[in-house]
Structure formats: C-alpha cells, structure tokens
Amino acid sequence: MKRAIAAATALALLTGCSTTAAGSDGKLNVVTTTEILADLVQQVGGDRVAATSLVPPGGDPHSYEPTPADAKRVAKADVTFTNHLLLEPQSLIKTIDANAAKDAPNVSLAEAAESYGAHVIPLVENIGLDVLWLGLRVRGTGKQRGATRTSSVQLAATKLDGPGQLVAYLTESLGQPDRYFDSTDGLDKADSTTLPPAAHTHLNWAFTKPGIYHLTLKGALDNNDGKLQPLGQGTFTFAVGVDPHSVKGKTTVLDDGHTDLTVDLDSGQVYAYSDAKKPGAQTQVPAANVVIDVPNKALVPIPDDPRFAFLGKPGMQIHQLPQAVLGKHVHGEIDPHLWEDVANAKAYVQLMRDTLSSKDPAGKQTYEANTTTYLRKLDELDEYLRTTLATIPPDRRQLITTHDAFGYLASAYQMTVAGFVVPNPAQEPSVEQVRKLSDTIRNLKVPAVFTEPNLAQRASVLIQVARDQGVQVCSLYGDAFDDHARTYVDMMRHNADELKRCLGDHR
Question: Which residues does UniProt call coiled coil (predicted)?
C-alpha cells in the first residue's frame, strides 16, 4: 500500500497543473475514474462532451493503479469526476488532485450528490468468522491539522514484546502476500503502512508462538508537505493461545465481531474501535485497557507456498486472525456504490449537469435538455427494476456474492445481502468455512449465487460450493462494464433480468 501511494505521488508530479481548454474538436474534455461515471457524463453532455475513464474496461476501480499517461490525461481535462467515498484507491485520487488544472472542476460525486437527493447507507460487513476480525483504521477528518482527501496517516509498529514473532500482512487478490508489520527481521521504518482519512483495511495477524504479546503502534499525519505530524501511540495486548482473562489490568477482552486498531486524526489518540454487540460493550476502548483474544481455534497450517516462507516452514501451525476479505480492501464507513440505486444515479447526473454548465455556460441549455431526457429514462429504469424484482418471492430475494457492492440495490429494491467472502485467499478454505457457506445456501434455499464479470478470479470457491449444492452461478454487474453491457442502463437492466431469471420461482 505505502509503495503504491508513493509511486502515485511521484507520477502525479510529472505534469503539474494545466489550464488547457476544450479539445481541438471543440468538445469539453471530461475525465472520470470509472466507465459508469463516463457513461453518465456522456448522457448529460451529449455532443458537447468527450468523456473517458481512467480505469480501463473491465478494470477494478478499488485496486487500479494510475500510470504517468493517466496523469497527463488529467492535466488536459476540463472537468474531472471521481466517485470517492474511498471507492478508488488513494493513489488514483492523489494523481487526479495533483494534476487537475486549477480552473477545472474536480468533483467527488458521492459526497456532493447528497444535496441533490442521493441517499447513502453504511457499508455493512457481516462476515461470519468464529474468531475476532481485526484490522486497521483512521477516524476523524483532521481538518484542524490541515488534512484533505489526499492526506495519509502512517501507522507504524515500533515495538513488540512476546514469546514469538508477529507478522501482520495482507493477502492480495491473486494470493500475493504484502507484509505490513514483520518482527521476524526486527521492527524498523519499513514496518508501517498508510491509510487515507476515514478509512480502514483488513489484515492477517499471524503469531509464531503462544503467549502474551504487546504491540506498540504510532500514528503520524502526512499532508504531502514533506513533514510528518506526530499523532498518538498505543500499546495493544494479545493473548495468543492462552486465557485472555488471565492478563491482569485489562478491562476489555475482544474476542469476536470486528475490531480495528485505530488512530484518531482529531484527538490524536490510538485505541481499539469495536463493533461488538455484547451488552455494555464499548465502541472505543483505550489501547491500555484492551486484550485481544487469539484463541487456539485460530491455529492454521502455514501454506506450502514459497511466497509464505516468512511465516515459517510449510505445515507448521501458527495462530492467525484472518483478514476476512479478498485482496486489498481499503474503504470507509459509507458504502460507495451509490449507483446501484437508480435514484442515486439521478442525483449524480443532476450534479454533473450543473458542473458542466458552470464550466461551459454556452452549453447550459443543451445540458439541461439532455438531463431532462435522461432522467425520464432513469425513471423508466427504476420502475423496471421495481416491477421486475417484485416478481421474485420474498423468501428468494437473497444475494450471495463475492463483493460487497450491492447494498444499495438490496436497500432500494427489497433484497437481502447474505454475502460471502473467503477469509484467506492464500489458503484453501477450511472444511468449516465451506460447511458454513453450504449451510447458508441450503438454509436460505437460494437457487443461485452471483459473481461479477470483472472479478472472476475471486469466485472459484463460491462457484465450486454452488455447484456442489446444485444451485446456479449467475452474473451481476457491480462497478464495471464488459462487452455485453456498455451503458449504465444496460447493466442495471441486466441485473434486474438476471436476478429474476436466477431467483424467480420457476418451480
């Protein structure tokens, strides 16, 4: 992560800012982050606009890393649109903000569209792990410290006491590990990572021996000015393979649900931020009061894969809290996939209309007329989704997918997300994990599960379990087009038709 952001910062400075006007063909040059946004802009702009996407066809906007050519494209843009709410990686946001011309509107749609009637919902991550799900988080805005959306917070592991070693690492989508904190060769400046403000990420936490560990984390704010502003630090206690209640002086044992080791940009404090639902459970617990339970049921064998040799010999047992999601997954507390509710797409296009009109006043009448026509089309699309999905029996409106991109679709059209994510894509799922997925499919009596065309490599386990259970494997579009769906309307109509085809009662 820190390597990607550093690379993006470097390429972002290649071109500097430009005040280039419309292209030689006279059209307004609009650059967006995704194809979906580019399509919406083109519908609004019509012949007066040339809209293109930085993320290529079929690309994953969550993980796309920008190139020097992207920086040059942004520098030549008259208008740029991002989705943000941490949909795009910060390296891409940095490239855009560093290269966008000073007189070019640079709009973050998901945040700004609320004033146009967009409705946002929390990003609900309901992973049925039987051990604690532990990550890293940055809370607060940091405005008083000069933080912006291109700022980053460094979280560094500065000290570890314990009977063995700790490696906190992320397993990327294709199984490549990326070590964040690794005490096996001593802790130094390399044992750190960065997150944007208001973001969190998921990690594997591996311990080589049982016992009590104390890990000190320190935070610092980087506002891209060459200086690090010190934040707080805190020392967290882990009970690995031993009774956490035996640790004296600790008031809170964290042993289930979702917890993040957190740096607060506003207060400067470091604490555990937990979503534990137990009666009396605290959401925010000072590091000094916490003991994190890593029980013996968290024992896993080291994979027989040379990429994981840093953990020890293949087959050896280590205690590991799994990262619980596939690949790099940095996001905030709000679900960024607003367009899966057509009402939110309507808010986007109205914001786009006003943005284009402010940059190109001569085209205002055209933008208004195009938007009126397109809003009628979106109203028809919204009604199509409602009437089509209403034909699915309520007990069959269950979505099992490989990506948490469909919360808005579920909320707007009376579906239920019962998502599944492989806890550790570097290893074959355990018998217990496969059993839980099988039980979910069986108990809910779902006739189908859903993959996304651009995320096929993440779906092998889901596909195999679905086939073992005798249910269909179907396809939904989340945040990218393919050759079969090249417009927003086409992808949403496909989603409605596919949900009806695969979940409808054809018995």
Answer: none
